[in-house]
Design brief:
This protein has helices spanning about 1-40, 65-75, 80-100, 105-115, 120-135, 145-155, 165-175, 205-220, 235-240, 250-260, 290-300, and strands at about 50-55, 160-165, 180-185, 185-190, 195-200, 225-230, 245-250, 265. The chain has about 300 residues and is an alpha/beta fold. A hairpin with a 2-residue loop joins strand 4 and strand 5 (about 195-200). Helix 2 packs across helix 5 (about 120-135), helix 3 (about 80-100) runs antiparallel to helix 4 (about 105-115) and helix 3 crosses helix 11 (about 290-300). The protein is elongated and about 85 Å long.
Length: about 300
């Protein structure tokens, strides 16, 4: 009995200490959570109609380049021949090896790309775009980025794609994802037929920032309350415009810049691989130049 009497108080004391420890832990967790909430207010802010989100497309929303997949679809539908394949192969190889954008090469690439769609009806390309989305693009949407876009939509905000890809392709993708719309490169058309020229320049680099600025003005948006998402250092002008820039699957230059600027980073690539998936499109080559390089690779592989 004496032994039991000696043990009983100890049990009670241990229980009291456990309760005290549990209460202290819960209080610390509550304070920590409150501090985080105070430090990082809810974002996106529900009901903020003057806020919106702008998403780059290639390797941000979709794995690989939209033009790569579009080119596969056009080659499958016999939009270009072997001679054109050889020309695009040279242009794409130069872009990849040189790593810079020479104005003469850029112009040549844009002219070649636009020649593919010249004379075709806009409605035809739009219809083909729907098919190509189902064939090659739907399964390549990054779930993580899709969730970010949905968070903005759930908060009642508008969400746009902003891409150098043709606006027809971008619009199909935006609609399929339930987004508000898309800003993309505009190819000139007369009476619904492509002329083989661009309206202005490809929507690339600084042009994206100007497009976002113009849209924000027209829609009455406050850019300091908006968000932008991209994988490429070429989009630093667009990311710098908004109050909430995000680096998504960033290339090395954007990752470094984002860290220096204390921007948020998200990487949805398996093993955080820095290499882009698929064949990257040459930046700003217009309608379909990047995609044709992919078609070349597929053509050679089948041979």
């Amino acid at each position: 009995m004496a032994a039991l009497g000696w043990l009983t108080p100890r049990r009670r004391s241990a229980t009291a200490r456990s309760v005290l420890a549990g209460e202290a832990s819960a209080e610390a967790a509550r304070k920590s959570t409150q501090e985080v909430l105070e430090r990082e207010p809810e974002f996106p802010v529900p009901g903020d109609e003057r806020a919106a989100a702008f998403f780059d497309l290639d390797n941000t929303v979709m794995q690989g380049a939209a033009l790569f997949h579009f080119g596969r679809g056009l080659y499958k539908r016999k939009f270009f021949d072997t001679r054109e394949l050889a020309r695009f192969a040279w242009q794409q190889a130069w872009f990849r090896l040189a790593g810079v954008e020479d104005p003469e090469h850029m112009q040549e690439a844009r002219d070649s790309a636009l020649s593919i769609v010249q004379g075709h009806r806009v409605s035809e390309l739009q219809s083909i775009g729907e098919e190509i989305y189902d064939e090659y693009m739907a399964e390549r949407i990054w779930p993580g980025t899709r969730a970010l876009a949905q968070a903005h939509l759930d908060a009642g905000q508008r969400v746009w794609l902003v891409t150098a890809a043709p606006v027809e392709i971008a619009t199909v993708i935006a609609r399929r994802l339930g987004l508000t719309g898309a800003l993309g490169t505009v190819a000139e058309s007369v009476d619904g037929v492509y002329t083989g020229k661009l309206v202005g320049e490809p929507l690339h680099g600084p042009a994206k920032a100007e497009a976002v600025r113009a849209l924000a003005l027209a829609e009455g948006l406050d850019l300091t309350r908006c968000a932008a998402y991209s994988d490429s250092h070429n989009d630093i002008p667009m990311l710098s415009l908004v109050g909430h820039p995000y680096a998504i699957n960033p290339d090395s230059k954007l990752r470094k810049h984002a860290r220096e600027m204390d921007w948020r980073l998200r990487d949805y690539r398996t093993g955080r691989k820095a290499a882009k998936v698929g064949i990257p499109a040459a930046a700003g080559v217009g309608a379909v130049a990047g995609g044709t390089a992919a078609a070349i690779a597929l053509h050679r592989k089948r041979r």
